[in-house]
Amino acid sequence: MKRVFPALAFVILVIGAWEGIVYFSSVPEYLLPAPSVIVKRLLALNIEILSHTAYTALEATLGFIMGSAFGFLLAVAFVHSHTLELGIYPYAIALKTVPIVAIAPLLVVWFGNGVLPKVIVSAIISFFPVVVNTTKGLRSVYSEAFDLFDSMSATRRQVFFKLRVPSALPYLFAALRISSTLAVIGAIVGEFSGADKGLGFFILISSYRLETVDMFVGILVSSLLGILFFYSVAILERIVVPWEQGTTTEAI
Amino acid sequence: MNEKRDNRTLTTPHFELQAIEFRSFSLSYPNTKTKTPLQALRDVTLSVLPGEFVAIIGPSGCGKTTLLRAVAGLLTQHDDKVIINGSLHVFGMPPAEAKRYRMFAFTFQNPVLLPWRTVRQNVALPLEITRADQPTRDRAVDDMLSLVGISDFARSMTAEISGGMQQRANLARALVQEPKILLMDEPFGSLDEVTRERLNFELLRIHRLKCQTILFVTHSLTECTLLADRVLVLSRLPGTIREIIHIDLPRERTEETLLSPAYLALVRKVREVFVREEAST
């Protein structure tokens, strides 16, 4: 609680100042609405905004799971075959440099206006940190531990499941924390390129109509969704990797 | 080589075979840069009886660890590209084969406990590898935990226990498969003096009970004299046996031993040989 307090105090201060500035100055609402107006609008929109959120959440979740799973499997393949790693790893990294905003419209052309293109955008963007960090994690085992397993005549399979995978888990979760928020961004970017539902669609439509209050509502809710994703992964991490408390393993 | 078969070292007389037998054994590591292989061991000839406790000392980087790893079958011509001449047999078998029969347990200077497992789960690891059934596993693990005196810490995570306790867990894990040969690479090197001494006596007690053959690498002159039946002094690189010192103290060694004139004389003797070797170039 002591650690949360300064952060909480700061955000209250900022919102208070914002409210005050809007109240005492004559900034028009279509430029900067007051926080109280945004919250009121959010509550008024309840069912509508909830259905958009659920839609985006579904896309982001599917994309996150697919991207992470594929990233994990590719990392496993890399540590088993050096040739495969030399052949594919550079392109897996190159994929990161392609702006996702540039790919999204193409995916809409290919796969239409439905869920699929957003899931793919979301998967591509969350794939990268997982593949890089899991590869690093699976290789993070120090040589004495391999010698220990070797001296016990462990099979390759046992070395993999009892040594490599548990060693990689902290690295994997460091990547998943980052991927989880990226997945939400991916889904929204996908929706910008063509959709009839979702938070991205909602924000875009509001901007066309110059409904600034609605845009702020969209931004607020999508941020909250990102935070929800992040903390879900963080909680899962505490359950699955209890031995790595506090020693954060940096992700790329 | 002096093969004095005194009764003290013959704890398991039904074995006809030597536990470990080196015959003009040499080992070199390949060097990709200079193309000339680095010779780590040269012309080592040594027989270790079953149940014997042999300590190995020598200058830093003299091939002590290499010797141990060769016995454990962790260095092979096929996988590690090392160049081996002469022969090395463990109970009449090549090391790689003996490893498959799980004759060894290896302990490292670092206890190498897996942080995601409790102490108990760490000790059980070798039995999981061999797929021992659950009741056997539980019984063996419980026995070992109490033998090394860490039953109270069975459920602790490994990061929560002290260095001494970690080494006890390491020892329990090594012993849980009832290995015939225990290969220990400076197991107590990073512990404080008092903890090290306590673990030395624990190890002696377990050795009296289980009569494994032990090869024990150490830097400590007092430790090797206290523990071993024979102390092997290796030369500088390439390592070869400079001298074998018989520690003819009674097997039953206690804190009294540490003060006895016979023990102190032996420590002095080991020191002389060691210092002479260290000084030579």
- Measured on Cα atoms, how large is the radius of gyration of chain A? 22 Å
- Low-pLDDT parts of chain A are none
User: What's the helical proportion of residues of chain A?
Assistant: over 70%
Major sheet: arrangement of strands of chain B = 5-6-7-3-8-9
Average pLDDT of chain B works out at 85
Could you spell the SSE succession of chain B in H and E letters? EEEHEHEHHHEHEHEEH
Major sheet summary line of chain A: none
Shape of chain B: globular
- State the end-to-end CA separation of chain A: 30 Å
Report low-confidence residues of chain B grouped into runs of 5 or more: 1-15
Number of strands of chain B: 9
Note the total helix count of chain A: 10
Largest interface: A-B, 18 and 25 residues
The average pLDDT value of chain A, as a whole number, equals 89
SS strand fraction of chain A = under 5%
Number of contiguous helices of chain B: 8
Q: Which shape of chain A, going by the Cα principal axes?
A: globular
Q: Kindly estimate the percentage of residues of chain B that lie in beta strands according to DSSP.
A: 15-25%
Radius of gyration of chain B: 19 Å
- In whole angstroms, how far apart are the ends of chain B? 24 Å
